[in-house]
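Chain A, query sequence.
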Amino acid sequence: MTYSTSTPTGDFWDFDFPQPQPTQDTDLLKQLNFLPGLKEILMLRQVHALEHATVWVLGERFGVSSSRSATTNYQLDNDTLGGLSTDEGFYLYGQVHLADLRRAVPIALRRITRGEWDLAVHPRCGTNFSVGMFLTAGLALGAHLVMPPGPVEQMLGLGLATAAATQLTPDLGNLAQRYLTTAIPFNLAVEGITATPDIWGRPAHFIRVRWKN
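Chain A, predicted structure.
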């Protein structure tokens, strides 16, 4: 899911993990097909990546400058756009013409599956927000236990914990996206794109996908 506020990113935590393989989720599903809900989880991760890639592609046409994670390049990000992924597809929120969206989604799918892996990571993703909350809470608790019990010391510890969390969140959030909450959508095919309200009645476009193998 992408939110409407932008967060700066960097590449300090860009570890040398194996590159994504086209059959990785298919193989995993074959090996662990006895696990209930596994296919839906794998599909949700791939949809999440396609959502991010679509926002990037639309941003290249209509957005404003914003650095893209895990690269030294600059990518365009329309921060008026947001998304919400499900295991059947994703909702896209914001002012976008249906015709432009129908062009952008296939382009995003083609680019991300042909090697532009970093399109799967977005600085406005809700993953970063969640990581920031947990990191801030953890560091604040640690500071509370380590620092002396006086109010001045406790406030100092809380300030240091908040500052540290602010610095670490973008990179750790990007890592969480890259290896936990998204996956390259090798198994997705786009079935349709329509203008439709979401489950809460908010205006949106829905990009419906299917698992193709």
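Confidence is low (pLDDT under 50) at residues 4-13, 64-74. Residues 90 and 207 are 5 Å apart (CA to CA).
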